[in-house]
Amino acid sequence: MEAVKNESPLRLLEIEKELAGPDAAAALKRYDAVLVGLEGRIEAALAGGLPPGEYEKCERLKEANTVARKVMRLVAQRKG
Length: 80
What we know:
Structural class: mainly alpha
Radius of gyration: 14 Å
Number of helices: 3
Shape: elongated
Order of helices and strands: HHH
Helix content: over 70%
């Protein structure tokens, strides 16, 4: 798996503001599309077979991705 650049806490706050702002639906759609793409890549890696250590990492990443999608929806719904 390739390394992912760490997001700064400020970027996460920007995303939260977007999800609570006037264009929340568009922001939710955009960020969700990124997470759906990640989910597809994780599923492909798991289906393709990985060493046990990497498989466990992918399983945790898959779970974190699911949680991120749920949290993102909750943040976007707070406005409504």
